[in-house]
Design brief:
Length: 356
């Protein structure tokens, strides 16, 4: 972090927007004295380090509130959390602004190009970011602009309009419901906890598609179950891991997902998973999760296999302890190209393969 701040100094930047990495109070970014602090929202995230309740997590986030420095709070749907911020701000004599109360004339309308925002000072403000969370983010940003103006910043209205309409080109911001490709359509979103993924789930309900394919990975310090509960069951999943130490093992993730009725393949890298997802739509058009009994889906962990260079459906069945059990399942006529792995629930090394 020190190297980053040195670089900012050498480049003589006018304003640096510094995002906290984890929490706030003990984060490496928390060595600066900012012009303003912003806390967007509080959700169950990094609980191993920040605490297992929202007030505990809020207390860590509140660590970025500095003496006599204004702080903007984006979302406050929990009174206990709000009180944590109020108490911290009062203790260091920091002006505190809750954006939902400050901008009470704010309205947002979803458009094909993104969003159209309305407020007294900024009517017909077009935002290019398309995600469902952007209405809340926009309100927080506009509140922050007003707070900075009160401290002496010079931010003309035309700069606000230009920034909202061209944020990705100006800043290089990526991964906010970002369209990477049109045929087939590929959307990238970096939502990484239940609070963020609930907006992704809402967005998916508005999308048109023949078959939904999701390349999915998580960090190992996330509340996995709360996230998987939100994920759509009518999708084919490609469980994978990012190339970072904190990434959750893809096989472990697939096991958790199976308990939530989510089926798919397992890949050791994001690039492999994306490549597979692009190759499988034609093969998967006739597949339906309803073709396999939910009781089996819930007990299965999904793996991947390159069989004659073709990815095929694999089920690791902890419930099927014998060839006979699996054979009877096959004879019922479920999916004609299904490949099933039978694994003794106590040993992942004993595998009998049955291919139809």
């Amino acid at each position: 972090m020190e190297m980053a701040f040195l670089w900012f100094s050498l480049q003589e930047v006018d304003v640096a927007v510094v995002e906290v990495g984890l929490g706030g109070r003990l984060d490496s970014t928390n060595i600066i004295t900012p012009d303003i602090s912003i806390i967007t929202n509080i959700g169950f995230d990094h609980m191993k380090f920040l605490g297992d309740t929202l007030p505990k997590i809020a207390a860590e986030k509140a660590g970025i509130i500095k003496k006599h420095t204004p702080v903007v709070i984006g979302e406050t749907d929990n009174t206990e959390v709000a009180q944590v911020f109020i108490d911290k701000a009062h203790s260091v004599k920091a002006p505190i602004v809750f954006s939902e109360l400050y901008m009470n004339d704010f309205e947002a309308e979803k458009k094909d190009y993104g969003w159209l925002f309305q407020s007294g000072k900024y009517p017909n403000l077009k935002g290019e970011l398309k995600g469902m969370a952007q209405d809340k983010n926009a309100r927080t940003v506009l509140t922050t602009v007003e707070a900075l103006l009160e401290t002496g910043y010079n931010i003309p209205a035309e700069a606000v309009y230009k920034g909202f309409a061209n944020v990705t080109a100006i800043t290089g911001l990526m991964g906010r419901w970002q369209q990477l490709r049109t045929s087939p359509e590929i959307i990238c979103d970096i939502a990484h906890n239940a609070h963020g993924l609930k907006y992704v789930a809402e967005q998916l309900l508005l999308e048109d598609y023949n078959r939904l394919h999701i390349v999915f990975g998580m960090a190992n310090d996330k509340d996995v179950d709360s996230v998987l509960t939100l994920m759509p069951q009518n999708a084919v999943y490609y469980f994978t891991r990012a190339s970072v130490e904190r990434a959750l093992n893809e096989k472990t993730l697939a096991g958790y997902a199976a308990a939530h009725g989510l089926a798919g393949y397992i890949f050791p890298s994001v690039s492999h998973a994306v490549e597979a997802a692009l190759k499988t739509p034609v093969k998967m058009t006739s597949f339906s999760s309803a073709a396999v009994p939910l009781s089996w889906q819930m007990r299965c962990r999904c793996l991947y296999d390159y069989h004659i260079n073709t990815i095929r459906k694999l089920y690791v069945c902890g419930a099927a302890r014998s060839f006979a059990n699996c054979e009877s399942f096959i004879k019922k006529g479920y999916h004609p190209w299904l490949t099933i792995l039978i694994i003794n629930a106590d040993s992942l090394s004993e595998i009998d393969r049955v291919t139809i």
